[in-house]
Amino acid sequence: MTVFFIGAGPGAADLITVRGRDLLARCEVCLYPGSLTPPDLLAHCPADARRIDTADLSLDQIVGELVAADRAGHDVARLCSGDPSIYSAVAEQMRRLDAAGVPYQVVPGVPAFAAAAAELGRELTVPTIGQSLVITRVQARSTAMPEGETLANFAATGTTLAVHLAINRIEQVVEELLPHYGADCPVAVVHCASQPGQRILRGILSRIAQEVRAAGIDRAAVIFVGRVLGAEKFPDSYLYSAARDRSDKLRPR
């Protein structure tokens, strides 16, 4: 049998992929992350499926449930908020499943930063303004950041930042970024992207901390920093340019 690590998306039940939904509908066991999983999403589970909220479980308890379900001959849906490739803690679960000889597959989902950018109505890569995106977080009560992966180091490149898990350290974020981006750099904060309680703040780097505190936003937010957020005068992409030579395009064989 198989454990499926399924990206459940950023919060809206209809932002799960078709593949993820179909797998969820056939698995006899479903492990899901508590308050991060909308009830409408769990409605896709079979009526008699065993549903396990992992909010209060340790890593060993979660893996124990996965292994036990596999040994009992059940396929398992392990829902992950957003996309499994980012801040999902699936790496240590897969490592333990490897040791236990339990097969698994990973099903991608819509990450929070992508949903947040969609709600902003912004492309994060704009010609001549910004062509890179750094997804990062700050050190809080979580696992230590690797040496060198600091906001200041990333900011020194001038690239667009998508900062996760940092809204309660907004003053620290601003302090570290101001010398590199400048006080007037556009910033956006998206709280609970795609969810009923979604809120969006748009501003500049020097003022965003006060605005966040005034709004009472203290969880589930993505902070974007970069000139692409306010870009208006930029050249069209070469992708669809009439001047582009399309004679060498790949043709069906």
From TrEMBL:
<protein>
    <submittedName>
        <fullName>Precorrin-4/cobalt-precorrin-4 C11-methyltransferase</fullName>
    </submittedName>
</protein>
<dbReference type="InterPro" id="IPR006362">
    <property type="entry name" value="Cbl_synth_CobM/CibF"/>
</dbReference>
<dbReference type="Pfam" id="PF00590">
    <property type="entry name" value="TP_methylase"/>
</dbReference>
<keyword id="KW-0808">Transferase</keyword>
<dbReference type="GO" id="GO:0046026">
    <property type="term" value="F:precorrin-4 C11-methyltransferase activity"/>
</dbReference>
<comment type="similarity">
    <text>Belongs to the precorrin methyltransferase family.</text>
</comment>
<dbReference type="GO" id="GO:0009236">
    <property type="term" value="P:cobalamin biosynthetic process"/>
</dbReference>
<dbReference type="InterPro" id="IPR014776">
    <property type="entry name" value="4pyrrole_Mease_sub2"/>
</dbReference>
<comment type="pathway">
    <text>Cofactor biosynthesis; adenosylcobalamin biosynthesis.</text>
</comment>
<dbReference type="InterPro" id="IPR014777">
    <property type="entry name" value="4pyrrole_Mease_sub1"/>
</dbReference>
<dbReference type="GO" id="GO:0032259">
    <property type="term" value="P:methylation"/>
</dbReference>
<dbReference type="InterPro" id="IPR003043">
    <property type="entry name" value="Uropor_MeTrfase_CS"/>
</dbReference>
<dbReference type="InterPro" id="IPR050161">
    <property type="entry name" value="Siro_Cobalamin_biosynth"/>
</dbReference>
<keyword id="KW-0169">Cobalamin biosynthesis</keyword>
<feature type="domain" description="Tetrapyrrole methylase">
    <location>
        <begin position="2"/>
        <end position="208"/>
    </location>
</feature>
<dbReference type="InterPro" id="IPR035996">
    <property type="entry name" value="4pyrrol_Methylase_sf"/>
</dbReference>
<keyword id="KW-0489">Methyltransferase</keyword>
<dbReference type="InterPro" id="IPR000878">
    <property type="entry name" value="4pyrrol_Mease"/>
</dbReference>
<keyword id="KW-0949">S-adenosyl-L-methionine</keyword>
